[in-house]
Amino acid sequence: MLSNIESDGSFSPLQLHYLQRLNRLLRLRADQRGLLNDEGAHLIDRAIYSTYCDAADLGVTAEAQKLLQKHAVALSTKK
After folding, report:
1. DSSP one-letter string for 19-55
2. pTM score > 0.70 for this model?
């Protein structure tokens, strides 16, 4: 997913930065899911939300939502 975004070239460096950050945080959340206590999960969730809002402010809402959906599907298949 993110490789498609990177190769697209239609994003500014700042937009790409926030999309990459969102992807990284979502992967971190999934990878650490069983290891986090409630506070740790809350902190990562807040970082994800903040980064999503930043991406939306920069006009890449659709791409950010695709990343969220991709990771939500991945989480549901890991159960």
Report:
1. HHHHHHHHHHHHHTTTT--HHHHHHHHHHHHHHHHHH
2. yes
